[in-house]
Amino acid sequence: MTMSIDLASQPVFTSVPTKICFRAARVPLAQASYEKLVAQYGNVALEEAEVVVCLGGDGFLLETLHKALPYHLPTYGINCGSVGFLLNPLSEGDLPERLFQSLPNMMRPLKMQATDVEGQIHEAIAFNDVFLFRETRQAVKLRIEIDEVERMPELVCDGILLATPAGSTAYNLSAHGPIVPLNATLLPLTPISAFRPRRWRGALLPSSARVRFSLLEHEKRPAAAVADFTEIRDVCEVLVQEERDIGATLLFDPENDLSERIIAEQFAE
């Protein structure tokens, strides 16, 4: 979400793609666009497709990336949601030609390994971020280790998150974390409403870092761990690191460069 991004300047396709798998969020604009595009270009199953076209918002795009991952298909998002930071604008233009001209970004996710209070281990990946958050009115207490070195013996907070470069513009930014350029091999580590140490604002870590969160007083102060849309309740330890063995290709119109938009976001009012 690191989601480290391998930037490319050459299109993915050598010819105009014709086998398109459309997926649409259950909102009126996405459904209306879906019906129109399917009627015009047809629709095939994931296992038969050359490309996936996602109609919705950023959240639905993340869900689509997870669905398409086993098929190694590039994904082209069309904004039918509210923000659409990771999507292309809705257009009535020639969609196959737009797909042919689009440029790829290879996204490497974070891998979360969360151990719950029963000792069960849960694994999930995140293209956006992994975060821990309190389950009750009480703040959580946690210890932070980076590459097996204790960096913070006790942090009292509502939660903490580790974001990918693209994810740095989402929850991380709302929590006052730094925006990270797509080609930076960095992971922002950002506290959520830190109480003690009150002035700690987080850290920038190398993308090779292995980050371990250990929950202190987890029975009294329970916390959940979330990787994109996968939530694990009552965790006692969470290990997060970049997953370099898998990746998803996200497509963008040449005039809708994601890297440029992330730089511009740092100067937005």
From TrEMBL:
NAD(+) binds at D58, G59, N128, D129, D158, A166, T169, A170, Y171, N172, L173, S174. SUPFAM superfamilies: NAD kinase/diacylglycerol kinase-like. The active site is at D58 (proton acceptor). Its cofactor is a divalent metal cation. It is found in: Cytoplasm. It catalyses: NAD(+) + ATP = ADP + NADP(+) + H(+). It comes from the Bacteria. InterPro entries: ATP-NAD_kinase_N (IPR017438), ATP-NAD_kinase_PpnK-typ_C (IPR017437), NAD/diacylglycerol_kinase_sf (IPR016064), NADK (IPR002504). Its main location: cytoplasm. Its EC number is 2.7.1.23. It is an enzyme of class 2 (transferase). Keywords: ATP-binding, Cytoplasm, Kinase, NAD, NADP, Nucleotide-binding, Transferase. GO terms for molecular function: NAD+ kinase activity. Pfam families: NAD_kinase_C. Involved in the regulation of the intracellular balance of NAD and NADP, and is a key enzyme in the biosynthesis of NADP. Catalyzes specifically the phosphorylation on 2'-hydroxyl of the adenosine moiety of NAD to yield NADP. PANTHER family: NAD KINASE. NCBIfam families: PRK04761.1. Belongs to the NAD kinase family. This is NAD kinase. It comes from Candidatus Kirkpatrickella diaphorinae.
